Amino acid sequence: MKQKLIKTLIVLIALGWLAGCEEKIDYKKEASLNFDVDQDLQSALQQKRMPQLAIKLGCNNCHALDHRIVGPAWQDVGRRYQKVADYEYDDKHYPVAEGLVQKISHGGTGRWGVEAMPAMDPTGAKHAELTKLVNFILALGKQ
């Protein structure tokens, strides 16, 4: 019995050591490398993968393309707004893409459950990047 316990302990220590040796990737650092945003989004759309821009901005912490994490799958968002022309945010009406940019920028709740979308760009400094991401998300709904 004692030998079995010792063997189990040795295996657990070895597994713990091996787990600590795995290469840790800092995706935000990797994504901060220069890349062509338009090419990145087009390539991601074709390959059905999360674009580097989304990783750089931290969107992948709560969203995936095809399944819910904390927030909805981007394919579901794209499908929901596929035939919608108007988006209401903060009692104002916007074209759907601009309304979604406002929601991402300033945050909110209520459209996809109780989880809050945190404000990702309250100053508007990332407006152009977020607009490109929203167009990417809407394009996912067409596939």
- Judging from the principal axes of the Cα atoms, what is the shape? globular
Unreliable stretches, pLDDT < 50, 5 or more residues?
A: 21-33
Task: Summarize the main sheet.
Answer: 2 strands, antiparallel
Number of strands: 2
- CATH fold title: Cytochrome Bc1 Complex, Chain D, domain 2
Explain the layout of strands and helices:
Layout: H1 2-21, H2 27-31, H3 37-47, H4 52-57, H5 74-80, E1 86-89, E2 92-95, H6 96-106, H7 127-140
Antiparallel strand pairs: 1-2
Helix pairs in contact: 3-7, 5-7, 6-7
Could you explain the architecture of this structure?
- There is one protein chain.
- The N and C termini lie far apart (59 Å).
- This protein is mainly α.
- Helix 5 crosses helix 7 (127-140).
- The protein has helices spanning 2-21, 27-31, 37-47, 52-57, 74-80, 96-106, 127-140; strands spanning 86-89, 92-95.
- Helix content is 52%, strand content 6%.
- Residues 21-33 have low confidence and may be disordered.
- The protein has a two-stranded antiparallel sheet with strand order 1-2.
- The chain has one domain (25-140): Cytochrome Bc1 Complex, Chain D, domain 2 (Orthogonal Bundle).
- It is built from seven helices and two strands; from the N terminus they run αααααββαα.
